[in-house]
Design a protein that fits this description.
four-stranded mixed sheet, 285 residues
């Protein structure tokens, strides 16, 4: 049994040592013993003959094709959100931008009619690419720490790129390359101070803005930098009790809403106390 992310790293190691030759990668994988059996099977699947098939004949992707994405997803902001609305890639979807309304009406009075407003959109399938240069000694190393080093380094680079694009207010997107951030074009609420009263007031303003945009706040989630979360966890009220007792550097709960921390959360300030931006979003919307 190998850990999540290990299969894809071994796949890349074998392919790099064989200089891209699949047959050579299979030979190397076989020489590594029983623990590399899944890697061998992943390579052999690529060499299988391709014949005519219908949509009902399609097979599930090989483990190596999903291993790294499954390893990476829980590290991203999107992967940690609860209540996220999932839609398929490159499929035209319709969303209601305004719902119907109900009215009180007296007997024999006209019945008002309302209608829904719809908008269509398509989620394109785009790529995040991380490349690294490794020595032959590192690639040939059988130490588990070597594989962990490679997988963690690639994952951290990809997570940083994905999370930064997701939250950066200045990211308006590049068609066919990178999607715009969810905060692009949104008017920021500027901090009114670092005191507990000021922070409470600012968080309330964010909640009011999200509510005014149509969210019921059921799945609303704050996203902030770890140092911001740490600062909130240390705030105390006038009686000396912690103002946010469920907060920590790994996140928690603030103002009754869950908090996700990410180093990719935008920050243009230098003071550890100031921290950076606090984003409130509704995954279900």
């Amino acid at each position: 049994m190998i850990n999540r992310g290990q299969l894809s790293v071994r796949y890349m190691k074998a392919l790099a040592i064989a200089n891209g030759d699949i047959a050579g990668a299979i030979s190397f994988s076989e020489s590594q013993g029983h623990g590399w059996r899944d890697v061998c099977e992943a390579f052999r699947a690529q060499l299988a003959a391709v014949g005519a098939e219908g949509t009902t004949d399609w097979q599930m992707p090989q483990p190596a094709a999903l291993d790294f994405s499954e390893f990476l997803r829980p590290m991203t902001i999107i992967g940690r959100l609860v209540g996220l609305r999932r839609v398929p890639f490159r499929t035209r979807t319709i969303a209601a931008t305004a719902g119907s309304s109900a009215y009180w009406s007296g007997e024999k009075s006209p019945r008002p009619i309302s209608h829904m407003t719809f908008a269509g959109s398509t989620l394109e399938q785009l790529s995040v690419i991380a490349m690294l240069v490794a020595t032959a000694e590192l690639l040939r190393s059988s130490a588990p720490s070597a594989e962990t080093l490679l997988s963690r380094d690639l994952a951290n680079a990809a997570v940083q790129a994905m999370d930064a694009a997701f939250l950066d207010n200045a990211n308006s997107g590049v068609p066919g390359v990178m999607p715009a951030s969810i905060t692009n074009g949104v008017t920021a609420i500027h901090s009114s101070g670092l005191t507990l009263a000021a922070i409470d007031a600012d968080l309330a303003l964010e909640a009011q803005a999200l509510d005014a945009a149509g969210s019921n706040l059921q799945f609303a989630t704050f996203v902030m930098r770890p140092r911001t979360a740490l600062y909130l966890s240390q705030l105390r009220g006038s009686g000396g009790a912690l103002a946010f007792p469920q907060m920590g550097v790994k996140g928690g709960v603030a103002a009754g809403l869950p908090v996700i921390v990410s180093n990719a959360s935008p920050s243009s300030v230098g003071s550890p106390q100031e921290g950076g931006e606090i984003t409130l979003l509704d995954p279900s919307q």
